[in-house]
Design brief:
The protein has one domain: Rossmann fold (3-Layer(aba) Sandwich), CATH 3.40.50.300. The protein is 26% helix and 29% strand. The protein contains 3 helices and 4 strands. Strands 2-1-3-4 form a 4-stranded antiparallel β-sheet.
């Protein structure tokens, strides 16, 4: 099966707070995975490590065979991310917001 996401001993420490401790995870194509846990369990930290928003303290996050910290642009080209809080322009309709963001993304698509 095609492995899309992999965490190997993925760890993130903030000062003396261990946010993520040696996570091992594998997500294959066509699998649906949910991260459940209490506040502070490391769910957001895990996502931010895969997206390259954070650097791991140790271990690696791998996206479609690419180590995120080694080639962030390539890893991100295989990801999509919709945050919990989506910010839209209140003066635009839903369709206008969608059109704006599609055009915005197309401006950067040539860079990939």
């Amino acid at each position: 099966m095609n492995e899309l996401l992999r965490a190997r001993e993925l760890t993130k420490v903030f000062k003396s707070n261990i946010a993520l401790n040696a996570l091992n995870l594998s997500v294959n194509a066509s699998e649906i995975v949910c991260l459940f846990g209490a506040n502070g369990a490391g769910k957001t930290t895990t996502i931010n490590l895969f997206l390259g928003f954070l650097e791991p303290t140790s271990g690696v996050a791998i996206v479609d065979g690419t180590i995120v910290s080694s080639d962030l642009q390539k890893a991100r080209s295989n990801l999509g991310y919709v945050p919990e809080q989506v910010s839209l322009y209140p003066s635009l309709s839903g369709l206008e917001n969608l059109d704006y963001f599609v055009r915005y993304i197309k401006c950067f698509a040539a860079d990939y």
